[in-house]
Amino acid sequence: MKRIIVVGGGAGGLELVTKLGRQLGRKGKAEVILVDRNRTHLWKPLLHEVATGAMDTGMDGLSYRSQAHNHGFSFHLGTLTDIDRDAKLIKLAPLYDDHGKQVVGERTLNYDTLVMALGSVSNDFGTKGVSEHCIFLDSPQQAERFHDELMNRFLQYAESDTVDEKVDIAIVGGGATGVELSAELFNAVEHLSAYGFKKLNRNCLRLTLVEAGPRILPALPERISAMAHKELRELGVDVRVGTMVVEATNKGLKTKTDELIPADLMVWAAGIKAPDFMKDIAGLETNRINQLAVKDTLQTTRDDSIFVIGDCAFCLQADGKPVPPRAQSAHQMASLAYDNIIASLNGKPLKPYVYKDHGSLVNLSRYSTVGSLMGNLMRGSMMVEGRIARTVYVSLYRMHQVALHGYTRTGLMMLVGRINRFLRPRLKLH
Ligand SMILES: Cc1cc2nc3c(=O)[nH]c(=O)nc-3n(C[C@H](O)[C@H](O)[C@H](O)COP(=O)(O)OP(=O)(O)OC[C@H]3O[C@@H](n4cnc5c(N)ncnc54)[C@H](O)[C@@H]3O)c2cc1C
């Protein structure tokens, strides 16, 4: 029986492996395997909510083993370190427990078809001090670390007698992650005062959002970017555009003009790259940010048995621009890769991937949602804000849930979510 391995159970990989499991694994037509370095899945666009406590990974994470059991694939916990294309196998690093004791040694798994869906990590562009002093929001573990440090900082503030002290937070990168995190932090601070952090209110937060380019949300139309900028300023965010950070220290961020932006907590969200170990992995073609180059069928340029989807794929559109690293791209690529894997198993021709931009939305926590939508009925893009924008924003996550669980279960999950809003505190408090 042919063996298909998907490495990375994220926004794209988990949708793909679920579909393959249902269609091939369950019917005994192929062996379908998911490999991920984590035990549970959390949709990455929700990580800033984990960082502020608006979401609890313990409650909201989806167990890979349970998903595998329900959908006809098997799950291997492990971190991919290398591919041997001649032997058609992947290598997984040894697994250690929290005390450093080895649980399982290095393993190898053979494949007939391999799908790389490993996502991306933050790119600090080699900026001095960033890896030591800034937190990245690349994984649930990092988002939880930020949350712990944030809660400690708030506790320190609430217990201190100094009147003019503030909680200084700096975020580097005015893209969707930086903008959404900024708004979510103000939401958190307002809710925490109701849970015994009496002194906390939005005035205790000094939040600086730093962007090197001339405006925040550079990938979105100028009007949206101006709207979001205004909203953030009204919340109290110090938005610094045209400001290049050259170093991070334990006191804050140093700019190109030699200014120090003081900060107790710093987040780096200024760009992405595929993980460093992927550079030239197994002699495959990669670009300067380590993404694997693919043909329009999503197969690598040098090996047809390897497909790549999501953020780690370097896929060019007809206009020569790369497909952007977004959840909607990962979702679309998962659908096309599914069709093409089935076609290649049946000896049928493969289809080309065409990226469909449905627009971009930015959610400023409960304060506002802004963005632009694109569709077949409209020419160009249409600006949206408020309730409509919020509904469309949420529907991207609902689509992901439907792909993983089907309509009935997703409906039940929405119901449970509503009930939990009454039962659980608004924020994770521990
Ligand atoms: C805070 C934040 C907010 C965002 N908001 C939005 C948004 O609003 N809209 C939008 O479209 N996009 C958004 N994005 C981008 C979006 O999350 C990504 O484009 C999308 O998740 C990419 O999907 P993927 O499947 O390629 O990778 P991911 O979803 O990142 O999944 C990668 C998976 O691979 C696993 N993995 C990684 N390395 C290894 C390894 N060596 N071995 C085994 N497993 C491994 C990881 O554990 C993970 O499960 C946001 C990103 C962040 C960080």
UniProtKB/TrEMBL annotation:
Keywords, ordered alphabetically: FAD, Flavoprotein, Oxidoreductase
First and last residue of the signal peptide: none
GO MF term (any one): oxidoreductase activity
Cofactors, names only: FAD
Pfam families, A to Z: Pyr_redox_2
Residue stretches making up the FAD/NAD(P)-binding domain: 3-334
UniProt keyword Oxidoreductase present: yes
EC number: 1.6.5.-
Domain of life the protein comes from: Bacteria
The protein's enzyme class: oxidoreductase
Family under the similarity heading: Belongs to the NADH dehydrogenase family.
Protein name (record): NAD(P)/FAD-dependent oxidoreductase
Originating species: Oceanimonas smirnovii
Higher taxonomy: Bacteria, Pseudomonadati, Pseudomonadota, Gammaproteobacteria, Aeromonadales
